[in-house]
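Input (Molybdenum cofactor biosynthesis protein MoeA):
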Amino acid sequence: MQEYWIRWESWMKQYAPGLLTILQPGASFEAVASLEKLINATLPASFKAFYAVHNGQVKARTGLVDADQLLSVADIITQWHHWKDLLDSETFTYNEEPIFSAPDTGIKNDWWNPLWIPITSDGFGNHLCIDLDPTPEGQPGQIITLWHDDAHRAIVAPSFEDWVKDYLNALEKGDYIFVKKWGIVHKDTFLNYND
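Output:
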């Protein structure tokens, strides 16, 4: 997984060298183990190898993933607790019935599932998640969308490594650009302006 960071950092050096300063040092074995203990599940080996190089990014206005922050392990834990508190307080129920999502095939129809592990954040309650509890049609470790106010749940990639690889391929192809106010954004997004 280190090769992916080499490619990503090489892109940053060329197009957005300031982003290199928001990369965190690698996550410790203990930090990742504490996350796995919290969720009572094993994270994909590719995630652990990727985070051993850089533990996501520091909290900043600019994001590394289409304007979203790549969460550190500590921030993943914080977001997970936020969603778990909402689940435990029955926020995702109405008249004592569960509120269901509208997922792609392969994703459970929960509004949120404790085995959906947030890895990015837009700061408004929306994430990409590692799905460790798919339906039989899905793949453990697939990357899915989680919206706080929209029922749709989509599969973005079949695995964490595929997600990283696809994102970096698109980055190097020129599908994403750096915008000072937001960070790395898709070239066709409404965020693609400089003011």
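The domain at 2-186 is CATH 3.40.1580.10 (SMI1/KNR4-like).
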